[in-house]
């Protein structure tokens, strides 16, 4: 694609300023529309399982396209599924998928919520590692998240607008109510319990309707870096980044 992938823009300070708030909001809506199609409007329900900034391609007009369906799964109903090979991109995985290998459309919703918060803030959610050295947008510990604090605490303090990327905030060309709505939708999508997260139809409606009344989000889910137990006593784990996939399998 002409503009490569989303992560090239939102995580590169030299390119970040090219994404004003209007364009960021359009990208969020575009991703939501694409995920809604996969979950609801396509002939077969598709769960992407590896939704992340690196898998969102941008065309010449900066319109987003969901890509890389190498680990996607097709389903005909809403039943949750299990896997012993967890495809991991740290920071985007829902807790139930990372820890127990359980995935559903709500796993994609969690990843979408992380994407929304990254696009708003211009910061990467690196997940919670056992060393505690990485920052996290979802962590419950303010000390892990830099000078702007973490999303959940800012939301509870009524100061969620301060999460907005400084490059956008400094330009002053954003609508505060729109930013708040995006943060609230993002937090609703990353709630710890899958049943608390909205479906993409409700997400898309909430984003596109300024008058929509949204529920208050519960605390977000996040997890430490550990393998998923399997029924045969072993475990398998797949860790993905934008450039590399590493699979480790241990025997009994």
TrEMBL record:
InterPro entries listed in its UniProt record: Kinase-like_dom_sf, Prot_kinase_dom, S-locus_recpt_kinase_C, Ser-Thr/Tyr_kinase_cat_dom, Ser/Thr_kinase_AS
Gene3D superfamilies: Transferase(Phosphotransferase) domain 1 (1.10.510.10)
Gene Ontology MF terms in the entry: ATP binding; protein serine/threonine kinase activity
GO cellular component, one term: plasma membrane
Highest rank taxon of the organism: Eukaryota
Protein kinase domain ranges (all copies): 1-222
Keyword Nucleotide-binding included in the entry's annotation: yes
Keyword Disulfide bond listed: yes
Protein's name in the database: Protein kinase domain-containing protein
């Amino acid at each position: 694609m002409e503009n490569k992938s989303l992560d090239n823009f939102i995580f590169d300070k030299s390119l970040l300023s090219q994404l004003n708030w209007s364009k960021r909001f359009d990208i969020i809506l575009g991703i939501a529309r694409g995920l809604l199609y996969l979950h609801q409007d396509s002939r077969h329900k598709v769960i992407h399982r590896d939704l992340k900034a690196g898998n969102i391609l941008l065309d010449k007009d900066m319109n987003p396209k969901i890509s890389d369906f190498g680990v996607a799964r097709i389903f005909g109903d809403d039943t949750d599924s299990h896997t012993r090979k967890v495809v991991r991109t740290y920071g985007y995985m829902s807790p139930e998928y990372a820890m127990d290998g359980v995935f559903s459309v709500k796993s994609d919703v969690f990843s979408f919520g992380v994407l929304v918060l990254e696009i708003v803030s211009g910061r990467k959610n690196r997940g919670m590692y056992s060393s505690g050295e990485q920052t996290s947008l979802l962590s419950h510990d303010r000390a892990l998240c830099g000078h702007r604090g973490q999303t959940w605490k800012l939301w509870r303090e009524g100061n969620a607008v301060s999460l907005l990327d400084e490059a956008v905030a400094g330009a002053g060309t954003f609508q505060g109510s729109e930013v708040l709505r995006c943060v609230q939708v993002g937090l609703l999508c990353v709630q710890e319990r899958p049943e608390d997260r909205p479906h993409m139809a409700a997400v898309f409606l909430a984003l596109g309707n300024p008058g929509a009344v949204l529920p208050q989000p519960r605390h977000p889910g996040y997890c430490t870096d550990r393998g998923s137990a399997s029924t045969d006593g072993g475990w398998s784990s797949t860790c993905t980044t934008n450039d590399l996939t590493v699979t480790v399998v241990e025997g009994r």
